[in-house]
Design goal:
Elements: H1 2-18, E1 36-40, E2 51-52, E3 63-68, E4 76-78, E5 89-91, E6 100-105, E7 108-111, E8 117-125, E9 131-136, E10 141-144, E11 155-160, E12 166-170, E13 175-181, E14 189-195, E15 208-217, E16 219-222
Antiparallel strand pairs: 1-15, 2-4, 3-6, 4-5, 5-15, 6-14, 7-16, 8-11, 8-15, 9-10, 9-14, 10-12, 12-13
Length: 228
């Protein structure tokens, strides 16, 4: 009887060695967190007050500022690094149509798959909410359903890209188009930024968005010479 059990034990051992590893449980985090790809905190000139944002206000030398929408030149920059209640930020209150602000790394795309995420500091008024936007390597623009913004105070927010649902964006008009885009390829993102999809209402409460510091966590993907 003992000798008959030996082959059976050998077979069971071999099957155990061939069994694939258990699949991750739903919601279980797998893999390493993505590194910081860029952080932008905006540059303001003390005493300069409110004025249109330009490339000069981009603190990082590796980033290019991109503005979209017919009234995008009205996006303002203001605030002070010494004032926590009014940090350096861009403001959309004077924009009479929806606008979008994006940043492009000069040397790299960014891979936003896996555990890529965004952190930012925002404040809003009225029904405005700040949404992420991305430009894929093939030129497709997408806007995400994730939205942040408190009308009471500046809030620091952190969200995972993998949990965002995306819809196409007409970036010239800053309007959504079509249905949900299933499984977009986020492995080579050319530009990344934000929009609130609404026009501003001017100074005072009612309708605008503020975005202060803005961080993107993802893996850099080197651009080729032609892209640069």
């Amino acid at each position: 009887m003992f000798y008959r059990l030996i082959p059976f034990a050998i077979v069971c051992s071999a099957l155990a060695q061939q069994t694939p590893p258990t699949a991750p449980r739903a919601g279980e985090r797998t893999g390493a967190r993505a590194p910081l790809f860029f952080r932008e905190a905006w540059k303001t000139v003390p005493g300069a007050g409110e004025h249109g944002v330009t490339q000069e206000q981009v603190a990082s030398p590796t980033l290019e500022l991109k503005l979209y929408g017919s009234s995008s030149k009205e996006v303002q920059v203001l605030g002070s690094a010494e004032d926590p209640s009014n940090p350096p930020h861009v403001w959309t209150g004077l924009c009479t149509s929806p606008t979008a602000v994006a940043l492009r790394d000069k040397g790299n795309y960014v891979d936003l798959t896996g555990l890529a995420r965004i952190r930012w500091q925002t404040k809003v008024s009225g029904f405005h909410q700040v949404h992420p936007i991305v430009k894929l390597a093939d030129g497709t623009w997408l806007v995400g359903d994730h939205a942040d913004g408190s009308p009471l105070d500046w809030h620091d927010s952190d969200f995972s890209i993998a949990e965002v649902r995306w819809i196409k964006l007409d970036v010239d008009k800053v309007l959504t188009k079509g249905n949900w885009v299933e499984h977009p390829d986020l492995s080579k993102v050319d530009e990344i930024g934000f929009t609130d999809l609404l026009p501003g209402s001017g100074h005072g409460p009612g309708g605008w968005s503020d975005v202060a510091w803005f961080e993107v966590y993802g893996k850099p993907v080197k651009r080729d010479a032609a892209t640069n």
